[in-house]
Every structure is written in C-alpha cells, then in structure tokens.
Write a structure and sequence with these properties.
The chain crosses the membrane at residues 25-44, 64-81, 87-105, 162-182, 189-207, 213-232, 239-266, 286-303, 355-373, 385-404, 413-431, 437-457. This is Transmembrane protein. Keywords: Membrane, Transmembrane, Transmembrane helix. It comes from Haloarcula japonica (strain ATCC 49778 / DSM 6131 / JCM 7785 / NBRC 101032 / NCIMB 13157 / TR-1). There is one protein chain. With 596 residues, the protein is mostly helical. It folds into two domains: 6-112 and 160-455, no CATH class; 464-592, Rossmann fold. Helices cover 66% and strands 4% of the residues. The chain has 28 helices and six strands. A four-stranded mixed β-sheet has the order 3-4-6-5, with helices on both faces. A two-stranded antiparallel ribbon has the order 1-2. Helix 1 packs parallel to helix 4 (88-103). The longest helix is centred in the N-terminal third of the chain and has 41 residues, at 2-42.
Length: 596
C-alpha cells in the first residue's frame, strides 16, 4: 500500500510540475504580447478631427492584443487556482498592466476628457477644482473622493491624468478585494486566485471609467467585508480600527454607498447568527451594533446640507411621476428594433452581467439544496444571501421612484456578490476535480471579461479640446442671467470648466431644459433664431451633427435622435438675429437677440 501511495504521489507531483511549467510558458508569452500592446499604445496618435468612437479609432491589432492578454491573464489565475501555484501574482500583474493601458486610452488619443457635457463626473471635477483653488470644501455633499483626487494633484499627479489613474486605482482595489474576500470566507487553497479571476472583468462596464463616487466608493466594499469577517472570527480590535477608517471614508464618499454598507453589515450579522443556530456549530456571530454605529455619523454629516432635504423632497414629490423604469421603457419603445438588433444590443451591453447572474443563480440553487439536504455552508450561504439581497434592492430601485441610472448601477450590490459566487463555484469545481465544470467556468469568465471591456467605452462620450475651450470661453464671457442653450450639455459642464467655487458658476445658466429644438427651430420660411430662443446664447458643436450619423445607430435611431444638420447651421449662420461671438472650428457660440 505504501508503494502505491508513493507512485500516486510522484504522478501527482509530475502533474503539478507540468501544469506549473505550462503556466510559466503562458506567462512569458502573455508578457510578450503585453510588450507589443504597450508599443502600439505608445504609437497612438492624437485625433486630428472629431471621432464618434474611440474603439473604432484604434487599429484592430491593438484590440486583439488587449483581449488576448486579458483572457490569458484570467486563464493564468484560473490555472493557479486549480493547481494552487503562485502564478496568480503574474496573472494579476498582467491584468492590471493591461487595464492601465485600457484606462489611459482617451489620454493617448488626445481627448480632453472622457465624459460628455451631461456626465456627472464633470460636476465632481468642478468640485475638485474648487478644493484646489480655495483649499477648503466648498459645500460638497460627499467630498471623500474629491479630497482624494485633490490630494493626488497636490502630490504632483497631473490633473488631466487624475480621472484615469483614479479609475484604475479603484478597479484594482475591487479586483484584489474580491480575491481576498473569497480567500477569507472560503479558506480553501487556490481561493485567492479564483477570487481574483472572478473579479477581473469590468463588472460595472462603463462605470469603471466614469469616476462616479457612488460606484468608486462601492468598489471598496469587498475590503470592508473582509475586515468584518476577520473581526468576527478573531474579535481583534485592529480590524475594527481599519474597518472604521474605511467606513468613515465611505460616509464622506457617497450617502447611498453608506446605506449599502450599513445594510451589508446588518445582513451579515443576521446571517452569522442564523447560520450558527442552523449548523449547530460554535460560530462566532457579528454584532449588529457594528453597522448601527455608523448611522449617527451619517446623520450628523448629511443633515448639515440642504441637498439632503432636497433629495428627500425629490423622492417624495416623484411618487406621482413616471418611474425611471417606465421612462426607459418609453424611450426604448420610441424606436423599433428587429429581434436580431435587440439581441445584439442586449449582449453587447449586458452580456457580461447576464453570464455572472446566470452562474450566481445556479450556485444559489445549489446552496439551497445543500441547506435543505446536506447542511449549510458558511461561504456559499453568505454569498447567496447578499446576492439575493442585491437582486431585491435592484428591483426596488428599478420599479420604485428612486434616483438611479441604468441596470448596471442599480445592480452593483448583486453584481459584486455574483462575482463572489462565481469564484466559489470555481474553487469547488477545482477541489472536487470536476474538470468539465472548471473548463466551462473558465470559458464563461473569459467571455464575460471580453464583453464587459467591450461595453466600457461608450460612443460619443469623449470631450474634445474644441468643445472644452469653447464652453470655457462662453461661460466666462456671457451675460449672467441670460440662458445658454446647448444640446446634451448642462450646468455640469459649466462647473467643470470654471470650478464649483467660481462666481461664474452661479447661477448655472446651462441647465437640462436648455436643449436644442429640432432643425434649430426653423420650421417656416419667416422663422428667426430670436423667435425660437429669445434673448439667449446658443452653443453649436460638431458633436451635435456627427454623433447621430455614426454607423452604430440604426436608421430608425438616427431619425429619432437627429436634431439638426449643416443646412440648419447654414441658415443659423445667415440669421440676422444670431451673432457669432466665438468659433474654433469644432465649436461655435452665438448671441441671439431681436436687436442683433
């Protein structure tokens, strides 16, 4: 029997050596591809004109290299999880370096900013400008991320690089956080690599690039829950101190993330208590006081601001209005799509989310089966509990009258724990030597990563220097109190170009209602600009006329979204009531008045 065991051990060692040897070759090859990709990145030339899509502007060879390195890095992590090797470090390094190139693409292409004239990030960077100009917090509701970015700028990081560096930083924290969380709750060999592999896709797609405090602050949650688990098990006060520091940062980062944090802690406390009773084992439970302790801090901070009362009033006043879900359905119904077009758009936008939700759903069913017939498992039960809670919260957001944007943002809680469940499924299939399931999971995880990265850079989200310079000129020279009409531009752009501390920001005369009418209002031979706009300013830009004719819009969409073309601009140019006060080739500012 001993001789047989020795042979089995040698066969096992040979198997492990072969797999680790292959992992080494894989890492070397991927490193070579990454070097080639970096060389192509350095050769990217700034755009010479207006572009509707950053993705289409780059050569296909760059994207082949990017996706090869991304998929290969995740495959390296999966192989490290299966063989329990140390090559997870190499896989993680490849993925982060690959994403660094990906996140800085707008900078390499020469765009002024990633985010158009209505993006929330513009207002947040206006807050950062205010901090840098005054050295204080100019009435910012949730300044955590703003202060962090301002401090990075003070330390020498160029302001134009802050959006991309910060996005990469929080994404890295989330990937590593998911890996450490899975390792903490699972405790099995290879679980760290499995968690890193499951966390590698950009599960929030475009929000990874948008520098939104609601999403960036939520990316810290895996670290927070890891500290919570370590404290629950050890009762060590060092974890409490770290936990409180991160918790306070989250309070100052975003109120919704704070509520998520409190709910997560309370749910974890309830789950740990219930699990201890059902499993009949001596499991240390988490005290709910850890979550409740943050409520006074949150209350004391947010009640200082008028935005708090305004936000509550908006929710209450919206009870009789159409829900965000209903409004989205109305917009979607305004343009007809064929079944093929609908399927293509759904896979492009939500393919990654669907894959992770499907895997998490299967794991949740298996967890329920184990709970009923084989006994509960703490790690799977914890992930399933939070995943289910996330689905319930997302349903409330989408169906209720709450302020939320898009399915991805509403599902950030459930998406996070879907990734945790995907990792736990990989750990289980590897430990049980179910090679078929492991291969299927590997294919689905890589596919999810490819789809998520493909959906991250939305078309027409890149601001040109012409648009920035033109807007900056207009908001610094217009007569305050006179409205500024602009298409897909709001007061957020005004805050971005002058800073929230500037006296030129108040009143913010570029508001969401100052949109451009179809054909610039020319529906008759005798109509003038003054008849349409009255005493006002009008901003026209290449973005207005080019974005809707891009090939990624169907003909029906182009017809629905199109506002005005060169013929309307030519009539505007010859209109006696419209006087051009600024132009730079890609942007024009007009003063409209009956007296012109």
């Amino acid at each position: 029997m001993g001789y047989k065991t020795d042979i089995d051990r040698k066969l096992f060692d040979t198997y492990q050596f072969a797999n680790r040897d292959l992992q080494e070759y894989l890492v070397i090859v991927l490193a070579g591809f990454l070097v080639l990709e970096s060389g192509m990145f350095l050769m990217i030339q700034p755009a010479t004109g207006y572009e509707t899509s950053l993705v289409d502007a780059l050569p296909q060879s760059f994207w082949y290299l990017f996706y090869i390195v991304l998929g290969g890095g995740i495959l390296t992590l999966i192989a490290a999880a299966v063989t329990e090797s140390g090559y997870w470090r190499h896989g993680l390094g490849l993925i982060i370096a690959n994403y660094a190139l990906f996140f800085f693409l707008p900078k390499a292409r020469g765009y002024r900013f990633y985010g158009q004239g209505r993006a929330d990030a513009l207002r947040h960077f206006g807050d950062i400008k205010g901090i840098l100009a005054t050295g204080s917090l100019p009435g910012i509701w949730y300044p955590g991320e703003h202060v962090l970015m301002a401090q990075m700028t003070m330390l020498g990081v160029p302001f134009d690089a802050i959006p991309y560096l910060t996005a990469l930083l929080f994404t890295t924290v989330q990937i590593v956080g998911i890996g450490v969380l899975v390792r903490t709750i699972s405790g099995q060999s290879g679980s760290l690599a499995a968690g890193l592999a499951a966390g590698a896709p950009l599960i929030y797609t475009t929000f990874h690039l948008s520098n939104h405090p609601a999403i960036n602050s939520f990316m810290i949650v895996p670290v927070l829950l890891t500290l919570t688990e370590l404290y629950r098990r050890s009762n060590d006060n060092e974890y409490v101190v770290l936990f409180l520091l991160i918790g306070v940062f989250i309070i100052y980062s975003h109120p919704m993330t704070t509520l998520f944090m409190v709910g997560l802690l309370l749910l974890t406390a309830v789950y740990s208590g219930v699990y201890g009773r059902l499993s009949l084992t001596n499991v240390r439970s988490l005290s709910p006081r850890l979550g409740v302790a943050f409520l006074p801090l949150l209350f004391a901070w947010l009640t200082k601001f008028g935005q708090t009362q305004q936000a509550i009033a908006n929710v209450i006043n919206s009870q009789n209005e159409a829900t965000p879900a209903a409004e989205e359905l109305q917009k979607a119904g305004s343009v007809e799509f064929s079944p093929v077009q609908l399927a293509e758009k759904f896979v492009t936008l939500y393919g990654s989310t669907t894959i992770y939700f499907a895997i998490a759903g299967v794991v949740s069913l298996v967890t329920l089966y184990w709970f009923l017939w084989r006994g509960p498992r703490y790690d799977w039960g914890l992930g399933t509990t939070h995943f289910t809670a996330g689905i319930a919260i997302a349903g409330t957001f989408l169906l209720g009258n709450l302020i939320v944007k898009g399915i991805i943002r509403a599902n950030r809680y459930s998406l996070l724990f879907a990734a945790v469940l995907v990792a736990l499924a990989l750990v289980h299939s590897a430990s049980e030597q179910r090679s078929g399931i492991t291969v299927v999971l590997a294919i689905l995880m890589i596919t999810s990563a490819v789809l998520a990265a493909g959906a991250a850079y939305e078309p027409n989200k890149h601001m040109t220097y012409a648009e920035y310079d033109g807007t900056q000129y207009m908001v610094n020279h217009y007569e305050q109190g006179v409205p500024i009409h602009a298409m897909d531009t709001s007061h957020k752009m005004q805050a971005f170009v002058v800073g929230k501390d500037s006296p030129r920001y108040y009143p913010a005369d570029i508001n969401l209602n100052n949109n451009i009418p179809r054909n610039l209002g020319y529906f008759g031979a005798d109509v003038t600009a003054a008849d349409t706009f009255g005493r006002s300013y009008v901003m026209t830009k290449t973005y207005d006329t080019e974005q809707h004719t891009a090939p990624y819009f169907t003909e029906q969409q182009q017809e629905y979204l199109f506002r005005y073309g060169e013929d309307s601009l030519a009539r505007f140019h010859n209109d006696p009531t419209a006087n051009k006060v600024y132009t730079n080739g890609g942007f024009s500012g007009w003063s409209v008045s009956p007296d012109n």
